[in-house]
C-alpha cells in the first residue's frame, strides 16, 4: 500500500475558528477525518501532521523519502515565504501536491505568489476542505 505524508502548515490548527468568512467552519480534525475516508477508498496509507514551525516541516519532508511515496501539503503562510520548504520539496523529489482552502490568487497580492508551486506536481486552490480530497485524488493518480 502506498503511503502519503500529509502536512498542514502554520495556524491551520485554528481551522473552524479562524476567519470563517475565508476558511469556513470545518475543523482540522474534520478535514483529517474526510482525508482518512478518502484514503481508505483510494487504498492509500496516510501520516498526518500539523506544524507551526518551518523547520519541523523541512524535517518531515526531508525524512519522507523511503518512508512515504508522496506528499500532500498545505504550506499555509509559508507558501509565500519559505525557500527552505521549497528546497526540501525539491530535494525529496517525491510526487507532491499543494493545496489551499482559499483561492490564493483571488486574495491579497502577497498571497498570489507560491514559492512551492514550481516544485510540486500541481496546486489546488479555492475549494475549501474539498481542496484536500481533490489533492489526494490527484496524488493517487500520480502514484499509480
Ligand atoms: C492558505 C492560504 C495562505 O495564504 C494562508 O496564509 C493560510 C491558508 C489556505 O489554505 O487557503 O494560512 O494556505
Order of secondary-structure elements: EHHEHEHEEH
Q: What is the 3D form?
A: globular
Strand order of the main beta sheet, please?
Answer: 2-1-3-4-5
Number of strands: 5
What's the number of structural domains?
Answer: 1
Poorly predicted ranges = none
Largest sheet: 5 strands, parallel
Going by CATH, what is the homologous superfamily?
Dehydroquinase, class II
User: What structural class is derived from the secondary structure elements?
Assistant: alpha/beta
Average predicted local confidence, pLDDT = 97
What proportion strand?
Answer: 15-25%
Q: Output the CATH topology.
A: Rossmann fold
Using only C-alpha atoms, the radius of gyration works out to: 14 Å
* Multimeric organization: single chain
Q: What does this molecule look like?
A:
The chain is of the alpha/beta class and 144 residues long. The chain has a single domain, classed as Rossmann fold. It contains 5 helices and 5 strands; from the N terminus they run E-H-H-E-H-E-H-E-E-H. It has helices at residues 20-23, 28-42, 54-62, 83-92, 130-143, and strands at residues 2-8, 44-50, 70-74, 96-100, 122-125. Helix 4 (83-92) links the parallel strand 3 and strand 4 (96-100). The protein is globular and about 40 Å long. The protein starts with a strand and ends with a helix. Bound molecules: 1,3,4-trihydroxy-5-OXO-cyclohexanecarboxylic acid (DQA). The site of 1,3,4-trihydroxy-5-OXO-cyclohexanecarboxylic acid has 10 residues, from loops.
Amino acid at each position: 500500500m502506498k503511503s502519503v505524508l500529509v502536512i498542514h502548515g502554520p495556524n491551520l490548527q485554528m481551522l473552524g475558528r479562524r476567519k470563517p468568512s475565508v476558511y469556513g467552519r470545518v475543523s482540522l480534525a474534520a478535514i483529517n477525518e474526510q482525508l482518512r475516508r478518502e484514503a481508505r477508498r483510494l487504498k492509500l496509507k496516510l501520516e498526518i501532521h500539523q506544524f507551526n514551525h518551518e523547520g519541523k516541516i523541512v524535517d518531515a519532508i526531508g525524512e519522507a523519502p523511503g518512508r512515504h511515496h508522496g506528499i500532500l501539503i498545505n504550506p499555509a503562510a509559508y507558501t509565500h515565504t519559505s525557500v527552505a520548504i521549497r528546497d526540501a520539496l525539491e530535494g525529496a523529489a517525491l510526487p507532491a501536491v499543494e493545496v489551499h482552502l482559499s483561492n490564493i490568487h483571488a486574495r491579497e497580492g502577497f498571497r498570489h505568489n507560491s514559492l512551492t508551486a514550481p516544485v510540486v506536481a500541481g496546486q489546488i486552490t479555492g475549494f475549501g476542505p474539498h481542496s484536500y480530497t481533490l489533492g489526494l485524488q490527484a496524488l493517487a493518480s500520480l502514484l499509480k
